[in-house]
């Protein structure tokens, strides 16, 4: 067994094509939940869902979120209604008093459904309605995710990092905002001052995650701050990573990032936005997979390959390098 830590698009792209290298049934994914929001009463878990949709062949591979060819009739009607009612498009946070009332799983990340600032496809929405219903009926997020994975025919264990609420709040020169406001609504433009994982101090990793971290672990090429950072903020995760073989795939080629706001967020949180910065941020990593054009000198074993991830053949190539790196540091695949 090998466990992957995943968030955003980097790690799902790595796993896309990796089935011949790592048997999906024996290769759990621990998914970041710091990006999750409650939108119009529905719990939306983007990083869990990208893996669910990728594994079930439903993913929109243009955007790497949502369902391919999904319609957006409800979303459009919500925007039209708000517009004709003269309601500002938002993002419309619920008042502070409502952020900690009601469902614990949605604390500090509650938005009104008015004008719906994130686009939810119609079929995607059905998944959120089902997930939220299962939570309201008393299931944990881990259990609800397993039920959804079974319904979609997904073999790979998909494990939310926690059943408790953790909200990634980006502190910017324009004030604090949830990661989804920063990323979707503001297009990552505001200058970042710091990043907070609200709730992480009291949230715990689930037992399923702790068990999965007994196996060798791969930290995929996800954003070290907002995809991997929330997991590292949970009690016991760093210690678990220190006592198992860990291979990290850099999301950079030296100081060039493949995609997303990783560079900006790393610089703002005191790390060098580069492979060298990633190596420093992951002291628990025993080996690295770097791009062939990445000459960064790291004090741990390195396997080099072309780390571009554009299609399943790329995923397979990089997964082979990951496997070699795990074996190099004594991990049993
Ligand atoms: N990303 C966008 O850029 N715009 C959207 O409207 C949007 C909606 C959305 C709905 C469901 C979902 O699961 C993901 C969605 N994303 C959207 C992607 C999401 O913001 C991020 O890519 C992830 O949080 C990063 O991991």
Give keywords.
three-stranded mixed beta sheet; 333 residues; seven-stranded parallel beta sheet; 13 helices
Write a structural description.
The protein contains 13 helices and 15 strands. By secondary structure, the protein is of the alpha/beta class. Strands 6-2-1-10-11-14-15 form a seven-stranded parallel beta sheet. The chain has a three-stranded mixed beta sheet with strand order 4-3-5. A three-stranded antiparallel beta sheet has the order 8-7-9. The chain is globular. The N and C termini lie close together (6 Å). Ligand FO1 binds at residues 7-8, 35, 44, 46-47, 49, 65-66, 118-120, 124, 180, 183-184.
Secondary structure blueprint with pairings:
Elements: E1 3-6, H1 10-15, E2 29-31, E3 37-39, E4 42-44, H2 46-55, H3 73-84, H4 96-99, E5 110-111, H5 122-136, H6 141-151, E6 158-160, E7 167-172, E8 175-178, H7 179-185, E9 192-198, H8 207-212, E10 217-219, H9 224-232, H10 237-242, E11 246-249, E12 252-253, E13 256-257, H11 262-268, H12 275-281, E14 287-291, E15 302-305, H13 312-328
Parallel strand pairs: 1-2, 1-10, 2-6, 3-5, 10-11, 11-14, 14-15
Antiparallel strand pairs: 3-4, 7-8, 7-9, 12-13
Helix pairs in contact: 5-6
């Amino acid at each position: 067994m090998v466990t992957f830590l995943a968030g955003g698009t980097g790690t799902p792209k790595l796993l896309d094509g990796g089935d011949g290298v790592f048997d999906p049934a024996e290769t759990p994914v621990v998914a970041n939940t710091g990006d999750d929001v409650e939108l119009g009463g529905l719990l939306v878990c983007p990083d869990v869902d990208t893996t669910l949709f990728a594994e079930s062949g439903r993913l929109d591979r243009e955007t790497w979120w949502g369902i391919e060819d999904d319609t957006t009739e409800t979303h459009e009607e919500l925007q039209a209604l708000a517009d004709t009612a003269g309601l500002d498009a938002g993002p419309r946070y619920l008042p502070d008093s409502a952020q900690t009332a009601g469902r614990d799983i949605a604390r500090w990340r509650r938005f009104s459904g008015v004008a719906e600032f994130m686009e939810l496809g119609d079929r995607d929405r059905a998944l959120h309605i089902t997930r939220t219903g299962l939570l309201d009926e008393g299931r944990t997020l881990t259990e609800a995710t397993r039920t959804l994975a079974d319904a979609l025919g997904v073999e790979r264990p998909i494990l939310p990092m926690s059943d408790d609420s953790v909200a990634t709040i980006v502190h910017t020169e324009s004030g604090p905002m949830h990661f989804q406001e920063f990323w979707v609504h503001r297009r990552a433009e505001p200058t970042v001052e710091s990043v907070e994982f609200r709730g992480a101090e009291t949230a715990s990793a689930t037992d399923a995650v702790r068990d999965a971290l007994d196996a060798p672990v791969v930290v995929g090429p996800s954003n070290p701050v907002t995809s991997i950072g929330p997991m590292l903020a949970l009690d016991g995760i760093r210690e678990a990573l220190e006592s198992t073989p860990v291979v990290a795939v850099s999301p950079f080629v030296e100081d060039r990032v493949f995609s997303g706001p990783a560079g900006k967020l790393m610089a703002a949180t005191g790390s060098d936005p580069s492979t060298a910065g990633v190596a420093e941020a992951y002291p628990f990593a025993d080996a690295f997979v770097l791009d062939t054009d990445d000459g960064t000198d790291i004090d741990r074993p390195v396997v080099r390959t072309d780390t571009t991830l554009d299609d399943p053949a790329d995923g397979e190539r990089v997964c082979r390098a990951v496997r070699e790196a795990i074996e190099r540091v004594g991990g049993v695949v």
